[in-house]
Amino acid sequence: xxxxxxxxxxxxxxxxxxxxxxxxxxxxxxxxxxxxxxxxxxxxxxxxxxxxxxxxxxxxxxxxxxxxxxxxxxxxxxxxxxxxxxxxxxxxxxxxxxxxxxxx
Length: 104
Ligand SMILES: [Zn+2]
Known about the structure:
It is a single chain. Helix content is 16%, strand content 37%. The protein folds into 2 domains: 11-47, no CATH class; 66-103, no CATH class. The strands form 3 sheets. It has a 3-stranded antiparallel sheet with strand order 1-2-3. By secondary structure, it is of the alpha+beta class. The longest helix is centred in the middle third of the chain and has 10 residues, at 38-47. The protein is elongated, with a radius of gyration of 19 Å. The site of zinc ion has 8 residues, from loops.
């Protein structure tokens, strides 16, 4: 069982309704501190209308799934049309390595 990072007490699964959206995490049995994963926090932010600028909805296109790139990311990284996106599965999710074909 995981321990509370505040008091090292035992924690239990916990959920609450906040702004009409259920959020699931853990609560310390001793000090009552609550903990939520970053994924769960993000889900809650999106569902309560606080969607961060760098979040995109995954959409179905034919038999594929598609996401668009945030404009700010495009400006800051020099990604452009006809670049190649190389996907790598990493512990945190998916890393997209951009390859500019003309520089190869
Ligand atoms: Zn605690």
